[in-house]
Amino acid sequence: MDIKISFDCTNVNWDNVAKILKQVGMRHYAPHLHKKAFMNSYVTLFTYFDNQMIGFGRAISDGVYQAALYDIAVIPEYQNRGIGKIILRNIMDKLQGCNVILYASPGKEGFYIRHDFRRMKTGMANFINPDQKREMGFTD
Ligand SMILES: CC(C)(COP(=O)(O)OP(=O)(O)OC[C@H]1O[C@@H](n2cnc3c(N)ncnc32)[C@H](O)[C@@H]1OP(=O)(O)O)[C@@H](O)C(=O)NCCC(=O)NCCS
């Protein structure tokens, strides 16, 4: 598969980003908010096949020693074909020297464990919507 990778946020179809996040069951917002979040991120990555956006991801970081991954998603038709791995590896390459954290969608931990992530024992979160996050399985 000839997958095109782009780190560039310009000319991204943000409606599509919101649609894909919704499609894969992740938190999604109005398209202009995704644009702002990606534009304000340290690394952004989009994957395309035949000019169709099929996946993306982003990291926020201080660029020195701390980073966090968000919005890693691959459209269902292209999952389990190595695209998630491409997204993760290319973002991680830009974060060398950083401790990288994330919170996996419940059930997706295995994907990250395969890529050398380990469960955190002291991870704490102050979520905007704590009850919902608890119900979704993110917190105690
Ligand atoms: C999680 C996700 C990004 C993985 O992308 P993908 O393109 O399907 O993954 P890949 O095909 O690159 O898989 C890479 C490896 O991880 C493994 N893997 C993928 N999903 C997995 C899962 N849920 N549990 C365990 N292993 C998994 C694959 O078997 C593969 O292993 P291999 O290298 O030994 O062959 C994708 O399934 C997705 O978008 N899911 C919905 C959104 C989501 O939950 N995102 C994560 C938010 S934290």
From TrEMBL:
GO terms for cellular component: cytoplasm. GO terms for molecular function: N-acetyltransferase activity. Keywords: Acyltransferase, Transferase. InterPro entries: Acyl_CoA_acyltransferase, GNAT_dom, NSI-like. Residues 1-140 form the N-acetyltransferase domain. Pfam families: Acetyltransf_7 (PF13508). This is N-acetyltransferase domain-containing protein. It comes from Desulfamplus magnetovallimortis.
